[in-house]
Amino acid sequence: MNLSPAAFIKYAFINMNNSIQQVLKNRFGFSGFREGQQQVVEQLVGGKSAVAVFPTGSGKSLCYQLPALILPDLTLVVAPLLALIEDQLDFMRTKGVAAASIDSTKSHQENLETYKAVKSGQLKILMVSVERFRNEKFRNFLKQIKISLLVIDEAHCISEWGHNFRPDYLKLSEYRKEFNIPQVLLLTATATPQVVEDMRNKFALDENSVFRTGFHRHNLHLKAKGVEQRDKTNLLIEQLKNNSSAATIVYVTQQKTADETAELCRNNGINAAAYHAGMSSEDRSAVQAAFMGGNTDVIVATIAFGMGIDKADIRRVIHYDLPKSIESYSQEIGRAGRDGLISDCLVMANLDNIHVLENFVYGDTPERTGIECVLNELSISENGRWEVVLSRLAGKSNIRTLPLKTLLVYLEMLGIIKPLYSFFANVEFRELVNEAEIISRFQGERRQFITDLFNGCPIAKVWRKVDFDILHQRGVQPRDRVMKALEYFEELGVIELRTRIMTDLYQVNPGFNKEEIADKLATLFQKKEIAEIERLERLIDFFQNGRCISAALAQYFGDNSFGDNYEGSTCGTCSVCLDEVVDIPSSVTPSLPSKEEFYRFTTPLYALLEEVQCKQHLSTESICRFLCGLPQPAFGSIRANKLEGFGALSDYRYRDVREWVERYKDHQ
């Protein structure tokens, strides 16, 4: 075929498009693409990276599932939740797509079979959580295979300015380089223009790689109604009884509210169930299955419910309590009306639970003493190497796991530490066949290496503990080779390998000024705290500023569906357009208890901390968090949450409790 360059490009594009259309129809059974999907698919099949910013329920998953069948090597998908992974795997299995996951719910043998299937080329898609990259065995495995595409679902988690920043996501751009992955697809439904730019910059993608569809969905009728707290239950029951069999999600903030409201619904003849993180995974799965199958009409849930839920006929989403943010609101209403039929989304707005949302923010801000504790641990590291077991460091510094991960990322950004690798501090194995038989399978230098490995790991009853220091002294090194040998034996089925206590190893840049770095970190977290509180304030203004809710939502996410004149735009179906003024009632803050009550609530805590010699954590912030019912790592191991005062002031605003504690604390 003798074609000019322009003609060849046209020919190649036509053939690529025909191939894409065939896979779409023959494998997925779709006659056409939804808005935005085809452009993203063509971008990926054409060998380029992409960012897809599509609203919830618009079919983002197809954007990687279809290209995965055309691209030559594995598509690796990073998703934030196991429920999301399982939902997508179930869909792909119905379409005959060879896909699997490696996760903690799978048995050891199941994960081994998945590793083998990937190596043999049987699988086209592998799904994992971001935490899987901290696994030493998984990273060794990725070095042995070819990957065409890295897909990052909920990619807004990459940005610290996003509504659900997750520190582990920041490392994904480095993992892409480490494992030589040529293409990346970033998927999100809730990214503002600032967050999209941040996502692009992290992966060095240009503006032409971004594909955005409109956030306005005509079939969603968005309503907000100011409701006094005492009237909320009556309004909810009234709403639900109007077509009581309609599939409905009722979102609440706290677990106890979910339980109480679900019971209230059942007492009023409504087929309802609660769903929250405090339930066992088996109970949550059963509730979700009943709702998906139409056997339960109403789910009363915290935000633990919804991610990955692909039920087309959800007719109503009701926010019994205010959502956490505009991003959360957009994500949660996006679960309604995926079949294109009219669906109602109602926010029952008052400020009575705003303190709960605020308190979560304050509870995640590390104390200055906690930051200093981490820096002290770092400064006494040996030979410029710092080993971190996250749970231990959290307990010592009294910083919760997520903000502690963020702190470590900030230290990376400041050039104080550099992550080297993660490993298991405790490695053990037991033979399933005779040691001599295993050694006899090898010759020459390999045979000597395996012999020395077994000799360096003596049996203690059944299991052999792998002590890498002893092996190193005996010349059995490096660690990477030892682990690869053990993993190979495991694949052969001749040993059982057991690994525990994930440890992160960092290189430390010495000579930093601890006082100066502590100031910088404290300032960064203070800015983050302020930004999260401002996010709540924007949410309140969003519902009561008198503007069309649909137009305001589109503008927030940089969508031009309503043109440039957002101020005068109307959708014709939201509560503002229907002249239903949203007047959010103010919260009624109860009076703070007396000095005597302060002593009653805190004296047992003082006594307990004295007993366990843990008084260094008896700061104003720690007492506030204790009284507001916010868990703290340092208090968990001593069961402080079982004391009478824990959560005694959970109905108060954190800032008010702080003033109260400062007034009486020094007189204790």
Descriptive report:
The chain is an alpha/beta fold and 668 residues long. 44% of the residues lie in helices and 15% in strands. The chain has 26 helices and 18 strands. The strands form three sheets. Strands 3-4-2-5-6-1-7 form a seven-stranded parallel beta sheet, with helices on both faces. Helix 5 (108-119) links the parallel strand 3 (99-101) and strand 4 (125-128). Helix 2 (37-45) packs parallel to helix 3. The protein is globular, with a radius of gyration of 28 Å. The chain starts with a helix and ends with a helix.
Which helices and strands occur, and which strands form pairs?
Layout (H helix, E strand, L loop, with lengths): L4 H22 L10 H9 L4 E4 L8 H9 L3 E5 L3 H13 L4 E3 L6 H12 L5 E4 L7 H7 L4 E6 L19 H7 L4 E6 L4 H10 L7 E3 L7 E7 L5 H10 L6 E4 L3 H13 L4 E4 L5 H12 L5 E4 L14 E4 L6 H8 L9 E7 L4 H10 L4 H12 L5 E4 L1 H8 L3 H13 L3 E15 L3 H6 L3 H12 L3 E2 L2 E3 L2 H6 L5 H14 L2 E14 L5 H31 L4 H8 L38 H17 L8 H8 L5 H4 L17 H11 L4
Parallel strand pairs: 1-6, 1-7, 2-4, 2-5, 3-4, 5-6, 8-13, 9-11, 9-12, 10-11, 12-13
Antiparallel strand pairs: 14-18, 15-17, 15-18, 16-17
Helix pairs in contact: 1-3, 2-3, 13-21, 14-21, 24-26
Task: Give a quick rundown of the structure.
The protein has 668 residues and is an alpha/beta fold. The protein has 26 helices and 18 strands. The strands form three sheets. It has a seven-stranded parallel β-sheet, with helices on both faces.
